[in-house]
Specification:
By secondary structure, the protein is α/β, with parallel strands linked by helices. It has a domain of 257 residues: TIM Barrel. The chain has 27 helices and 22 strands. The strands form 6 sheets. It has a 7-stranded parallel beta sheet. A 6-stranded parallel beta sheet has the order 16-18-19-20-21-22. A 3-stranded mixed beta sheet has the order 12-15-17. β13 and β14 form a beta hairpin. It binds glutamine and zinc ion. The site of zinc ion has 6 residues, from loops.
Length: 719
Amino acid sequence: MFKSYAYGFPRLGKNREFKKATENFWKGKIKELEFLQEMSRLKDSIAENYRKYVDMFPEGEFTLYDNMLDTAIMLGVYKVNNLADYFNLCRGKEALELTKWFNTNYHYLVPFIRKGFEPSLNLEWLNRYKLTHKSDILYLIGPFTFLKLSKGEAKDNFFEILEKLADLYTEIAASYKHLHIDEPALVLDLSQEEIQSLMRAYRKIAAKGKVRLFTYYDSVELLEELYNLPLEGIGLDFVSNAENLRIIEERGFPQEKTLIAGVVTGRNVWRTNYQKISKILERLAQHTKNIVVSNAAPLYHLPFSIENETSLPPELKSALAFAKERLGEIRNIAGKEAQEEIIFSPKENSSLRLKIKELKEDAFIKSHSLEERQKIQKEELDLPLFPTTTIGSFPQDSEVRKKRHLFRKGEIGIAEYKSFIREKIKSLVRYQEEKGLDVLVHGEFERTDMVEFFAQKLEGIATTDSGWIISYGTRCYRPPIIYSDISRPSDMTIEEISYAQSLTKKPVKGMLTGPVTIIAWSFVREDIPIKEVAFQLSLALQEEIAAYERNDIKIVQIDEPAFREKAPLKKKKWREYFDWAVKSFNLASSQVRPQTQIHTHMCYSEFGEIIEEINKLDFDVITIETARSRGDIIKDFERIEFKKQIGLGVWDIHSPAVPSKEEMQKVVERALEKLPKENFWINPDCGLKTRNWPEVSDSLDNMVSLAKDLRNRYQTIKK
Ligand code: GLN
Ligand code: ZN
């Protein structure tokens, strides 16, 4: 028998109560008191769930929006007096930047540490909105991870600030029985200096209290150094990697510390293989007597419970575990209760398997070189200098959402819904022509989500009824489940795209989501290599692209916004990842005629360090986000002698502000110093789904007008 521990249980609630109550409060439909009561109920029910299954759990994990922000408030980075101040930092005029949390699809608010920042402890927010008093283990994000993920002085004065933060954590440690401190940043590649300062910080903090340090998402290379700290326990992830186990087998584990063994995944939905886990635990038990069984990553990457699902195939459903079921697994493993093995055995598509096995190098290479294609496409498309386009989606306004809702509820039929979508497409085509855009899109009105949409069309991928997880704030999505070999039974997007194309002489872009992004935003089967899953998706996309060509679609965009995010946290694992990531993109698009122009789109990531990998993707045009980084990425493109065409996003679509022509022009001019004008596109930096029509209208006017100015200025006389 082991003791059991769990953390990170989703706050969303069984029926998304968190989202509903918060949004109702924002809209003024419920008062603060009612809102807070609902939040308390959620906190209580989380504690109840824990208590039902495990011996110990932390408290203080609950947040009204984001734990990084809460930590910033606790450390004196932001002063907030009430909920209005708080939500203003989340989504108001003072909103902080949002970025992906490690290599997950959860977005945290990025604290900005100003110059001259003096840390000071403020526990009021914690006491008022986060605690439940149901456990004597206090949950905190650690000072190292906090700073590592913050901006401003956190970058310039890291070591000095860390020292000061350590004093504050020491103060907290002295007044709580136990601390659960999350330090996932310890799995990143760290410099010697960073490691030394981390050690200094924890020597202080851990000396004053009982600290359990948690790491997850990958292995901890500096584990042996942590042994020297006066920690009460260390939490390690034994699911995502084999190194943690290897290090312990080689170096042992200190007898006086507790090993909190993360053996149940928090990042995928397949039921735990008990046999495999008990073997790992046996091996660990050779090195330490103090083992606590736990999850290997926070459980909030999983939906609430599989019990909520009604339409999954039963044999699949029985092989799945969401957050609540993970608690049960932890209990069973800790209690050494033998469980019957439930493994889902997908049907194998042997011809597809064979096809992938026999792919030769040339399957990834186009028949014509980039230069040849550029010439041919120039003739074919006859686009002006500085062509204008958008990224794909247009506002999903209340009209669209209402119709979809009615359709889902069965209150309107498929025919009515489809004709509504057609009307939307038709008016959007006209709208874009009036605005003077050069390359048009159909608007993506039929898609709720760029991954779920394709999951619904492809075989081998299941979608759930209520498998919601939080992406950020109250924004949720339902990751599909890739459970079997993938095939494309029929056209997925042809109907809408070719309808749009039939209405205009201008080219309309075919719009696809790439294999890496589909994988990154889904739960993926683990019985075959991920590379094979990616190639299966590529072959399905290849068929769709062939269908575009048969329908006279001349431009195809393959979105890969998750290309950077999906990269492993440790650089030594990059080569293997980028190998399949690049190949899967190229496989999807390699069979096209030279006339067909392939676009890709990426956004909201640090692209500088992966620019070489991006360049290995054999597209013709990339539209990429730069509006926030003010075109910094240009130096990276210059460094690699980028020959493809590029549309630097000149309009930051995550902000409601309408960009002026001058603002956009600055980005372009800076880029034109480095990149040839013939290769330049003008576009927003992402889809317009979340914007409203008036903003879109004004911004597009400015954008198109800028393109016209540029043409006048740079046009050489046509022969
Ligand atoms: N084509 C998608 C859209 O316009 C791309 C979204 C994204 O990059 N996340 O919405
Ligand atoms: Zn985007």
